[in-house]
Amino acid sequence: MENNYGAFARISWPVRTARLSLRPAEPSDAEATWEWRGLPEVNRWLSAAPTRNEYLRSFPSPERLACTLIVELDGVPIGDLMLRVSDAWAQAEVAVQAHGVQAELGWTLNPSEQGHGYATEAVRAAITLCFDQLGIRRLEASCFAANEPSWRLMERLGMRRELYSVAESLHRELGWLDGMTYALLADEWHDAEHQE
Question: What is the three-class DSSP state of 2?
């Protein structure tokens, strides 16, 4: 399995969009990312709500840095993306063809920067990066069904809802919630680009 280190090494960083740039996270990004990840309105949808000290201690772990991209506006971090490259499931005889062809994507954005299309722009850039530079064939993203801004973003970018699970995820405050998984294939992304 090719890990993110190998995949990310093939990219010429930073990746630029019209207004933003994306780059791999560094240990020194811990404070900046805590600025928004520590906010209740952001961490309510994340898988963990650590204290500031716990977060600052865990952020520089090799596992986290290997799958985190920083979104910058004019050189200032305003969000982060989780991009985890993985193997697809395959039967043993063809397993080698399934190495490093899937990815999982997630994102957070500083609420003070919401409403300007930055999340859409950053996630679009990450999707393009996956399909055009990393050779990913299938991309997935999941969220709580109650996190409407997240699934609306997935739909805006042409992702297909593949799974709606009833009461399958336990939220720390809201109890058992429905979950949603969206996906997109490289062929679908490229076909949509040609239609624009």
Answer: coil
Q: Which residues are registered as beta bridge partners of 81?
A: 69, 107
Specify the 3-state DSSP secondary structure of 46: coil
d(CA 87, CA 107): 21
Rounded to whole angstroms, the Cα distance separating 63 from 69 reads 13
Structure tokens that stand for 135 in this block:
């050779």
| Tens digits of residue pLDDT in 107-149 | 999 999 999 999 999 999 999 999 999 999 999 999 999 999 9
* Integer angstrom CA distances of residue 177 from 50, 136, 145, 147, 171: 21, 30, 7, 10, 7
| Sequence ranges of the domains in the chain | 4-141
CA distance 32 to 159: 29
Backbone dihedral angles phi then psi of residue 75, each to the nearest 5 degrees: 80, 0
CATH architecture of 4-141: 3-Layer(aba) Sandwich (3.40)
Rounded to whole angstroms, the Cα distance separating 8 from 5 reads 5
Amino acid at 91: Q
Overall pTM surpassing 0.85 (yes/no): yes
